[in-house]
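Attaching the record inline, Q. Sequence:
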Amino acid sequence: MEQKNKIALITGGSRGLGKNAALKIASKGFDVIITYRSKKDEAGAVVAEIEKSGQKAAALQLDTSVVKTFDAFAQQLASTLKEKWGLEQFDFLVNNAGIDAASPFAQTTEEDFDNLFNVHFKGVYFLTQKLLPLIANGGRIINLSTGLTRFATPGYAAYASMKGAIEVFTKYLAKELGSRGIAANLVAPGIIETDFTKAAFESHAGMKDFISGITALGRPGLPDDIGGVIAFLCTEDARWINAQRIEASGGMFL
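Structure, as predicted:
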């Protein structure tokens, strides 16, 4: 069991991969704070499940696409840390919050592009910057990327480009924060069956069979395939992993 009272902050932790990561991180003996954009009840259920397991947890509202709200969020986070934990900092930042939007290059509107940019790159960049004083020395930053930065699947030009930016950004985080002992890494899932991708699976007949056929392990991924990888990167066993892209795709397009 890892040392207690280390705390992870997971954006978008009320559902899907974020929820799974929150539960897996809690199973390592860490406490968890999740953010949610609108699903307050679902976030509360995740908090209750974590607390039932014996760890402390909290949920805070945050729209990661609206940078002007980050000052107030940082203040609320600092208050939560002090009131619930008696601490001034947390240890692990997991930038998980995201939106799914197909973006065929020829049909991508400026609004589509901006929505993806604000959530997947600008929001991650400036939220991480805003929270730097609250991240403990020796902590970890874990960003979420995608298999689509390694292989191209038509329809995701803008989305994958934002994630490509996150991959470069993560290397710079590792370089610039290394003096504080903070490691920064990427987890890049393949196609995962969650409510995030439900529309894609439902609108493309045969998609599940196609994904299974191009994946070495023969099936699409599940949240349980990813949360444990994120949790591992928070542990002491992962202390020497830094500036790495870890793809968890079951071996897609090998």
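The mean pLDDT is 94. The first strand starts at residue 7 and ends at 10.

More tomorrow.
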